[in-house]
Amino acid sequence: AQYAKLGLELLRQEKYEDAVEAFRLTLAKTLSDAAAQCNLGIALMRLERWSEAEAITRQYLQSTPEDCLGHLRLGIILRRLGRLEPSIQALRRAVQLNPRHSVAHKELGTSCLEAGLLEQAAEAFRQAAALKPQYVEAWCGLGKTHELMGKPGLALRVYLESLAHVPSERRGPIYARLGRMYRKVGDWKHARVALDKAIAKGETDPRLSFELGYVQYKTGDTAGALEQTRVLESVGSKLARTLREKLGLDRTKPETRAALLL
Q: What is the pLDDT of residue 50?
């Protein structure tokens, strides 16, 4: 009990290596301690020690086969190990045990998406968003699935609908996907607005600076586009060179020639 309590405290402090040792000491004394097995599996997941996490989570499920969260964790672990079919099976079991668990539906959608089961992925993401309307990852997953299904109009409607449900401070990923979609169809005005909002909301993916720089160039804002190349260079991204090459596509423009000298 002493080691188990210590392990929980270490887990809360995010000292995962030490937590693993504490839970292993607990299990050395009581092999069938389900709580210690559960928490050891969580600590190993935090450390991305997936094979070890799988082994202890399976042991845990032997004594608690009806635990939704155990099957949920197993499904995530198996996906990280690249074993998508058993991951989907585990996540389906989690959903079966608790049909109203939004995270279980979202994770099922993610595994189905990675397996190329797009219709099943869309249904799982849709269920997750219905159960938890503010669940930004579920909306992004649903929109991405529709994009991969070749349904950009439906994907766009999903992203726009999500803005009515997702809190303002969490809309960054939605704006990022909207910006990319608008850029792909040449809607430069809306693309710029969406990408600006994504970055303002704290999105830091260098691809967004590349996308925004290209959109700025297409809308005649060469100075803004060059600023994005500097942003990319400051983080050591190879996209800076690619963006500079994009800016040089029309060398007949005096402002572009001047900008390329910077």
A: 98
Residue 262 scores a pLDDT above 50: no
Residue 247: predicted pLDDT: 81
Phi, psi of 98 (to 5 degrees): -145, 85
Closest CA to 44 of 76, 71, 63, 17: 17
Neighbours of 152 (CB within 10 A): 14
First-last CA distance in the chain: 65
pTM of the model: 0.88
